[in-house]
Amino acid sequence: MSLAIESLLIHGGIDGDETTGAVNVPVYQTSTYKQDGLGKDRGWEYSRTGNPTRAALEKLVADLEHGQYGLAFASGLAAINTVLSLFKSGDKLVVSDNIYGGTFRILDNVFKNFGITYEIVNTSDLDKVEAAITDEVKAVYIETPANPLLTVTDIEAVSKIAKKKDKFVIVDNTFLTPYLQRPLTLGADIVIHSGTKYLGGHSDTISGFVVVNDKKLADRLYYLQNAIGGVLAPWDSFLVIRGIKTLGVRMDRHVENAVKIAEWLNNSKYVSKVYYPGLKSDPGYEIQKKQADGPGAMISFVLDEKYDYKVFFEKLKLVTLAESLGGVESLACHPASMTHAAIPAEVRKKVGIVDELIRLSVGIENAHDLIADLEQAIKASAK
Question: Which residues pair with 94 in a beta bridge?
Fold first, then answer.
């Protein structure tokens, strides 16, 4: 029986427990498993290698992404680290020009030490993508919408360009989740998530995911997952399964609120620029409509020079100044000094991550309350 995603969120993967009839997958809080003899286990031997609770979550996320194989990690960066470990010295990646600062940090300060290099490219410009894919390039790594400027990349078009040259396409789908966007169906080879964000959805656990369709690639990733060891614990796996059950209703509310706030910001006198692919004026609007079921709930905006961004953060009451995103509560952050501080200042400025840029993760509170809080904080920050 083919299920719509709203039903898959609740019944996908491994649904309940056949042994007891429990409607929830049990938490298998164990590190090891009894074996019936030498070389005779019951499908499980050690929880770094595999755990039934984690396996249920891995199958669920794979189902949601229309993938065959899912892997769960202790964090989004543990997932990214494992994917990057597919490559070897001399390999090169083409990377979106505004990506999560942690992704840039691990590329620039860790994998570069092993001879794996990268080139930063505006991946929304297909000509630039094609020109950047030289022989030593092994993969194109994109976020769409990108963090924090919400730049939209045409996944299908980039995938076609990469496939002509026999290169991987890796997509970080954290901002939209499989509820709104499914990159594997658009030609991507690897999908990455920080499950800490919308999949968990309650700011109470950290996790990461990788989903693929190719068995050879999956086998290599499973090997790396076990060898590197940054796996998701059973209790955290249970929490993310629980969070995913409400992903649909949460994302609907997130997006509804975000559209209202983006339109209010765009029509206000308080900001000089709004980045949100749900606005018709946004350059990524049409591509976003084509490849996703909604614009997401992340908004970035540049506060007008008449206002002090530092005071703005201090005056917020309902919206919380904090790292991360995707929880039920609304969060505001300062990318230049928080999420993207690892990126050199000259690179930040070149792509548009200026000091006045504010990133807003729109929660599921009352939209009018959120707008009122933003407005009072902006007014209070007038120079």
Answer: 119, 140
48 part of the active site: yes
Structural domains counted in the chain: 2
List 15, 17, 33, 48, catalytic entry:
48
Which among 228, 245, 262 is the end of a domain? 245
Q: Do 292 and 358 fall into the same domain?
A: yes
- Judged against a pLDDT cut of 80, whether residue 1 lies above it is answered with no
Q: What pLDDT is stored for residue 119 in this prediction?
A: 96
Please give the full DSSP string across 305-367, using - where no structure is assigned: TTB-HHHHHHH-SSSEE-S---SSS-EEE-TTTTTTTTS-HHHHHHHT--TTEEEEE--SS-H
**Catalytic residue chosen out of the listed positions 182, 197, 250, 359:** 197
**Which residues lie below 8 Å from residue 47, measured CB to CB, with a gap of 6+?**
28, 30, 31, 32, 54, 231, 234
Catalytic residue among 100, 118, 307, 309: 100
Residues 221 and 254 in one domain: no
**Residue whose tokens read 């609304």:** 330
For residue range 155-213, list pLDDT tens digits in order: 999 999 999 999 999 999 999 999 999 999 999 999 999 999 999 999 999 999 999 99
Do 229 and 371 lie in one domain? The reply is no
Query: 209 with 252, same domain?
Result: no
Q: Among this protein's residues, is 350 annotated catalytic?
A: no
Residue 278: CATH number of its domain = 3.90.1150.10
Catalytic residue among 97, 154, 172, 373: 172
Please indicate whether residue 245 is annotated as part of the active site. Answer: no
Q: Beta partners for 102? A: none
Q: What is the CATH number of the domain that holds 201?
A: 3.40.640.10
Query: Does residue 70 sit in the same domain as residue 123?
Result: yes
Tens-place pLDDT, residues 219-257: 999 999 999 999 999 999 999 999 999 999 999 999 999
pLDDT on residue 98: 84
Helices and strands (DSSP H and E) totals, the chain = 14, 12
- Domain hosting 230: range is 5-245
Q: Give the end of a domain, one of 245, 280, 295.
A: 245
Q: Are residues 183 and 233 in the same domain?
A: yes
Which pLDDT value is given to residue 15?
92
